[in-house]
C-alpha cells in the first residue's frame, strides 16, 4: 500500500517541479526585460586627447626638462584658480580639482578630465563623466581606483554644492577608443573611467549614483 501511494505521487511531484521551473523562467525573463529597460548602453567616443588612455607609465621618461614643464603646467592651473570643482574619494585619499570642459587644461595629460559628452553635476538626471590615467606617473590621478568596491562613496564639489555618490556598478570594457556606459537614466550619475589595473587591453568603468547633495 505504501509503495502504491509513493508511485502515484510521482506524476504530481514532476508536475510541481515543472510549474516551479516555469515560474522561475518567467520571473527571470521579466527581470531581464526590466533591467534592459532601466539600464541602457551609451557608447561614448573619447576626446582626441584621451582616445588612447593607457597605463601612464608609458608617459614617464627620464627627461628633467619635461618633468619641469609638466610641473609648471600644473602650477599654472593651480595659480590661475581655474578649477571649478573637485572630486574627493576618501577611501583612496584622492582629492583633485577639475576645470571647465572648454578649458585647454581639461586635458588628460594635465588633469582629471571631463568628457565633452558629460553633463555637469547640477543637471537633473545627468551623467558627470571623468577620465584620468592609472599607473605610476604624477598625472595618474586614478591610479588607485581599482581599490574601490560597490557601495563605496565619492564626492563632487561644484558650485558650492557637495554631491555624494555611491558606487553601484564596476565593469571592464575593451580598450578600442569608445566606452559603453550602462546606467540608470532616472538618476544623477557619476561615471569614472580609467585603465584596468595591470591590464593593457581593457578600461574599467565605475558607475555611481547620487544619494545626497548639500550646500557647503
Task: Explain what you see.
With 216 residues, this protein is α+β, with helices and mostly antiparallel strands. It folds into two domains: 39 residues; 170 residues, Sortase, Chain: A (Beta Barrel), CATH 2.40.260. The strands form two sheets. It has an eight-stranded mixed β-sheet, with no helix packed on it. Strand 6 and strand 7 form a beta hairpin. The radius of gyration is 24 Å and the shape is elongated. The N terminus is likely disordered.
Short descriptors:
2 domains; eight-stranded mixed β-sheet; Sortase, Chain: A; 25% helix; alpha+beta; 216 residues; two-stranded antiparallel sheet
Helical stretch count? 2
Q: State the CATH superfamily name of the largest domain.
A: Sortase
- The residue fraction in helices comes out at 10-25%
Strand content: 25-35%
| Order of strands in the sheet with most strands | 3-2-6-7-10-9-5-4
Look at the structure and give the CATH class of the largest domain.
Mainly Beta
Tally of strands: 10
Topology order in helix (H) and strand (E) letters: HEHEEEEEEEEE
Which segments are poorly predicted (pLDDT under 50) over 5 or more consecutive residues? 1-5, 32-42, 45-80
CATH-level-2 architecture of the largest domain: Beta Barrel
- Secondary-structure-based class equals alpha+beta
CATH fold topology of the largest domain: Sortase, Chain: A
Total discrete domains: 2
Cα(first) to Cα(last) distance is 79 Å
Task: Note the overall shape.
Answer: elongated
User: What Rg, in angstroms, do the CA atoms define?
Assistant: 24 Å
Query: Tell me about the biggest sheet?
Result: 8 strands, mixed
Q: Mean pLDDT across all residues, rounded? A: 77
Amino acid at each position: 500500500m505504501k509503495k502504491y501511494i509513493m508511485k502515484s505521487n510521482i506524476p504530481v511531484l514532476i508536475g510541481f517541479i515543472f510549474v516551479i521551473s516555469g515560474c522561475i523562467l518567467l520571473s527571470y525573463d521579466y527581470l531581464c526585460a526590466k533591467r534592459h529597460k532601466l539600464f541602457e548602453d551609451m557608447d561614448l567616443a573619447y576626446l582626441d586627447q584621451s582616445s588612447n588612455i593607457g597605463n601612464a607609465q608609458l608617459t614617464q621618461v627620464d627627461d628633467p626638462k619635461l618633468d619641469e614643464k609638466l610641473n609648471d603646467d600644473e602650477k599654472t592651473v593651480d595659480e590661475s584658480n581655474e578649477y571649478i570643482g573637485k572630486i574627493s574619494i576618501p577611501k583612496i585619499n584622492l582629492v583633485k580639482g577639475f576645470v571647465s570642459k572648454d578649458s585647454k587644461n581639461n586635458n588628460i595629460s594635465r588633469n582629471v578630465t571631463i568628457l565633452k559628452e558629460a553633463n555637469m553635476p547640477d543637471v537633473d538626471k545627468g551623467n558627470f563623466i571623468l577620465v584620468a590615467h592609472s599607473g605610476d606617473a604624477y598625472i595618474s590621478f586614478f591610479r588607485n581606483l581599482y581599490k574601490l568596491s560597490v557601495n563605496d562613496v565619492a564626492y563632487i564639489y561644484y558650485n558650492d554644492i557637495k554631491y555624494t555618490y555611491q558606487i553601484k556598478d564596476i565593469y571592464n570594457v575593451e580598450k578600442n577608443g569608445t566606452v559603453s556606459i550602462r546606467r540608470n537614466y532616472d538618476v544623477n550619475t557619476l561615471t569614472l573611467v580609467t585603465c584596468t589595473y595591470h591590464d593593457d587591453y581593457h578600461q574599467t568603468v565605475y558607475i555611481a549614483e547620487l544619494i545626497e547633495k548639500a550646500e557647503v
